[in-house]
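Regression report. Comparing outputs from two consecutive submissions.

Submission 1:
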Amino acid sequence: MRNRKLNAWVEEIRELCQPDAVAWCDGSEEEYLRLLDGMVRKGAAVRLNQQLRPGCYLFRSHPSDVARVEDRTFVATRDREEAGPNNNWRDPDELKEEMRALYRGCMRGRTMYVVPFVMGPLHSPFSIVGVEITDSPYVVVNMRLMTRMGEQALDMLGEGDFIPCLHSVGAPLQPGQEDVAWPCAPELSQKYIAHFPEDMSIWSYGSGYGGNALLGKKCLALRIASAKARNEGWMAEHMLIMGITDPVGRKSYFTAAFPSACGKTNLAMLVPTLPGWKVETLGDDIAWLRRGEDGRLRAVNPEAGFFGVAPGTSFQTNPNAMHSISQDTLFTNVALTDEGDVWWEGIGTPPPPHLTDWQGKDWAPGAATPAAHPNARFTVSITRCPSLAPEWEAPEGVPVSAILIGGRRPGTVPLVYESRSWRHGVFMGSIMGSEITAAAISNAIGQVRRDPFAMLPFIGYNIKDYLRHWLDMESRFPAGRLPKVYSVNWFRKDAQGRFLWPGFGDNARVLKWIFERVRVEGGAKDTPVGAVPAPGDLDLGGLDVSQAAMETLLSVDGDEWRKEAASIRSYYQSLGDGLPKELWAELEALEARLSQAE
């Protein structure tokens, strides 16, 4: 017998949305293939060449539906201050009334799929059960790869609580009306991604794109989970989880928070250039963190797959990702070769003379538009990853020895530096971000877009309370048991605009230094911003980087950092009253150290 609350909710939504049929998804391989075959027959998917890409399919979205729509993403709370300056706030009663009008009859002519799913390892104390109701078979097949979905989720749920997630593409069909390949509400004003943290529910309407429609991902695992975590004393973070093992077999686990386009997936699947060192992948996007029974910070990856950006992924940048997507992968908005394979900009091979682009049009080299959309995606089970750590589903999570943060900073920020304390580490996370390199307003170029812990679009409540929660975590742990925070910056450039650090597999040299520091083995020198490697502390064997370049990479220039401190002060002021006083104190301490170093 199914969960009574779930049965009642499904019936309520069936009456509201008026689908032609209701299907309870079991998560089986047979169901997955049947849905894919149905989409191929209807022209909504392309079955790729099964000799070249076994088990792979291509989808093309509507041009209006290619990415997350932050302007139409809402956090609805009774008190506007609870949502904070970082969210688009709506009154929950008003928003629900507005959306109910859209949902009324929105699934006519379609099947309503009931998708039970688990975020986190099955039967882990970390894990959360959700149920997504959707009229999109594309969502169903992606959810099967991204979550533990179907009967196993219902078994775990029993008569317990779940997060209700309602989704519709917003394109009802009239009798006899032919469907389109990618149904959605084409007008931006008709797209809604709504979060109701006070009743722990998610409503999405009008978009079929992953971040707006796969509601277990950013919506549940970050926005709703972050609010739940604040209430319950844990953290839901936009972080990869990796294991790193040294040549004698000692292993440590790191998490890392980077904004988009800063190499998070590449780092999670790193192939080290250092002999004898190994990196294993536990997750590339989201980490749930809480105190373990041993008094250490422990992390689990709530997801079961990768929803990665294809352009720029190649055997040079991420060989493990390329091996992962060699089969059993769903591609969205990449280009199609005449042989039935996929291609995208940055794949590492020249484009063939002819392609079918992401909109289904003929494309040839030299065209004015890219063949693949810049946000084209691949969806694949994490079990396909060659570097997957065997303990990735450990129900108790893995102990975190270091937290890495970073962004794209062509100057100022050194290659790596270490926090002085937990509070200083929270300060470092609060100020991280990337320099703006192109903008509609030219005077914004060169400014830093701050993105605290890479969570700015994903915090389900007020950012100032979020930073307070980070600070308060210290009181939940024995003294000295929380990991240190390390800022990394792979993107520093010379005066000619060339990258000073080779990156990719050579980032393992920085990971090695952090690995040794957390074991109190590595050397360092103090600077006003934190500890950096002293000369000789980084393993540079076989690396073609000049001494002058290394000096620049590890330098802390007082004049640049005084400008940085002024920028941080301006940013803090922009958040308004209520920013934790401890962060203001850390800024003042930084300014004092910089003054003393003059």
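Submission 2:
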Amino acid sequence: MNPHERNDGYGSLLADSRFEGFLWAQFLGAFNDNVYKMIVSFTAVRIALDSATSSRYLAIAGAAFIFPFILFSGYAGQLADRYSKTHVLRITKSLEVVTMVMGIFALAAGSLNLLFIVLFLLGTQATFFSPAKYGILPEAVGEAQISRANGLLELTTFVAIVIGTSFGSALFEYWKNEPLQMGFTMLAIAVAGTLFSLHIPRVPAAGRLGAFQWNPFGEIAGGVRALRTRRPLAFTMLGISWFWFLGALFQLVLVLEGSEILHVAETRAGLLFTSLAFGIGIGSLIAGRVSGDHVELGLVPFGSVTMGIFSLLVASTTNYEVAMVAIGLVGFGGGFMAVPLNAYVQEAPAADEKGRMLATNNLMNSVAMIVAYVMLIAMHGMLHWNPRVIFVVLGLASLVGAVIVTRLMTAITIRFVLFVAANLMFRIEIVGRENIPESGAALLVSNHVSYADAVLAGYATHRFIRFLMWKPIYEASFCRPVFEVLKAIPIDANAPKTIVRALKTAHEQLVEGKLVAIFPEGQITRDGKIGPFERGYERILRGLDCPIVPMHIDGLFGHPLSCKGGEVFQSWEHWFRPRVTIRVGAPVPANSTPDALHEIVTALGRPS
């Protein structure tokens, strides 16, 4: 996996044998964990004397797997930052083999306490595996593929959960009186996963310096301190923890749903987990595709709403088939949450701190899951709420979470909604996207053919753009709240002072290293031709040496949102998904004259 290779989507990732080795190694690990957890869960329910005891045992089983993340995440993060993540992954996979040997003895003894101990050891192995697993992706595939790699990672993880939960359920149902058969099966899976880990791509050590932090919480404390000044990363980690809180509680309640509400055997109860995990896997794959070459956090509110609505549907039905479909759609929403949040946490930290921040994230997630287990004991064991009531609580919590996320990421959410609307309305082709700088200041200059131009120009890059906008449009009552959130810069041709103020604001944005866009014609074309360029952009660039990026939007003249013949909302026959081509030219110097810039933009509209 070469991060500098051309991005060819999912195909290039799956064609790389080293990336496949990585996927298979983590797939078999997740598969084995879930087989064992299902066996322990059904054993706990079988041994329990009543429903209150069963929920307590289920909570203990969940806590046994999660508690190592709280104890050892600090150590795991340091190892991932100091040594090659490849070596960390291979060593921790070999520890899974040792743990499964111990699992054979625990199953043979038939002791629930020993089974919990082995579950704790499996959690310990997963604790050290996780920061290296997520941390290796940006180093191995590059930023352009990070969302797709996460989509495949989440898909294979939850496919492993699909098969693992179903397989574990069936294994317990048919071999619950033959524990050695179950134990040796899981040992074989652990050995296979360890062999695949030998194909994981080699990456160098991140090279973190300084003394090893022997206080297990000292490393986490450092990560928490770093989050105080990095609010986007902090909110992202809180979002992931919220996802795992909901997911952990939902998964535990599914065990009770099968036995108390739907009254099905272990194998059919396991298929409920299959539906959930299958939905998460498909949602993750689609989220990776929608995100494309960047991290699309705008998917998160949509995912949370989907989880909430279909959790309420699960609560409202006693039909097994309807419940399976609804549970799958809950998972689908979960995939839309998980991929962008995980990708952002992997991409944002520097190379020598990824392990620390991922370890901090793991600990936060683990605390969230422990809270979920405690709440299960409280709601089911103490308050005697049945699973249907708990699903209602989960659904409402997801919807409230969607509102909170939207408030925190209003601009990102609105931008995503606009881009979805643009894709529904137009067939968009971007040519020369790579000419827009990934970082630093640049002034984007485009022709002006319709009222959709700002959305389309913004679609050409994942970075936020501050657009200069004609003030009467900016102040339209139904649009102004959106323009304010997106921080458009209003400009009034009839008020010289506001012109100066707007140009000064745009200049300051460039000084801060932001992207600014302007339509130098000053108005939407009435005849399809590009009008003369005004000189206002020169005042924006005065004293600066940042590049001008020329753009040309083609395919919208005659659309109802254009002003063909001076009229808008005409030519309705052109409404349905016209093909729009956005061509981005190579950057030109800041001292380019209006005539020269006009010719460059015009030439972009005449591709050879």
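Expected: both submissions complete independently.
Actual: both completed, but the second showed a warning that disappeared on reload.
Relevant detail on submission 2: The chain has a mean pLDDT of 83.
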